[in-house]
Automatic annotation (TrEMBL):
GO terms for biological process: polysaccharide biosynthetic process. Residues 22-214 form the Bacterial sugar transferase domain. The keyword Signal does not apply. This is Putative transferase. It comes from Mesorhizobium metallidurans STM 2683. GO terms for molecular function: phosphotransferase activity, for other substituted phosphate groups. It comes from the Bacteria. The lineage of its organism: Bacteria, Pseudomonadati, Pseudomonadota, Alphaproteobacteria, Hyphomicrobiales. Signal peptide: none annotated.
Length: 229
């Protein structure tokens, strides 16, 4: 199964690589984080089980490095009765979220299972956020260059758009807004960083990512974003 038609861009994204040093850092940090957060993940799993039952995890196919699809894991935020192939975006005040799900969305703890994706080599600690197949068509006009880089848990776009769910205008089509405004904004941010990245700058973004999770990083001005729509 192919995530998208790469025939026109094969030469541009075939260089997808991550580097031995970055991979070593990813493995060490992901393993350490998995051990440190194991008790918290167990509590989250039990809370989800008691609140709504199985499944505890949400798995979705995402576009990875080189355009190759992979299964990305999260803790489930939505009610178990929700269609797993439903609306592709999570909005502010999304009524599909459970009580535990809202806590996970606010803290980003729903992303912790992706440590497994990092250990498997499908994701990195720092990298562009992997898109779902619904938005695979957005990788054109130069944005396909993002696929040269392994997707990550943290990075410039994840930090700046930490509260992405609040960026959508109250009227209009959210899917169209994402394709025409948010995706290009995030893609340009990523493409301005990753071609010049260094190990040190990646470490800086790890720190900034942690600060964003605890609410110490600023979000983009919502007014200016909405005006672009």
């Amino acid at each position: 199964m192919n995530a998208l038609d790469l025939s026109l861009h094969r030469s541009g994204i075939s260089r997808a690589s991550h580097g031995f040093v970055r991979r070593a850092i990813d493995v060490v940090l992901a393993a350490a984080a998995a051990i440190i957060f194991a008790p918290l993940m167990l509590v989250i799993a039990l809370a989800l089980l008691l609140e709504g039952g199985r499944p505890i995890f949400f798995a979705q196919t995402r576009v990875g490095a080189g355009g190759r699809p992979f299964r990305m894991y999260k803790f489930r935020k939505f009610d178990v009765r929700c269609d797993s192939h439903g609306f592709a975006l999570t909005m502010a005040g999304d009524d599909r979220m459970t009580t535990i799900g809202r806590i996970l969305a606010a803290t980003k703890f729903d992303e912790l299972p992706q440590l497994w994706n990092v250990l498997k080599g499908e994701m990195a600690i720092i990298g562009p956020r992997p898109e779902s197949l619904v938005f695979a068509d957005c990788f054109h006009g130069g944005f396909e260059d993002i696929l040269q880089y392994k997707p990550g848990l943290l990075g410039p776009a994840q930090v700046v758009y930490r509260n992405e769910a609040h960026c959508y205008p109250q009227s209009g089509d959210p899917l169209l807004f994402y394709r025409e405004v948010l995706f290009p904004a995030k893609a340009k941010l990523d493409l301005s960083y990753y071609p010049q990245r260094t190990i040190i700058s990646d470490i800086v973004w790890m720190v900034r990512g942690f600060l964003a999770v605890v609410g110490r990083a600023s979000s983009p001005p919502q007014t200016s974003i909405q005006e672009q729509g």
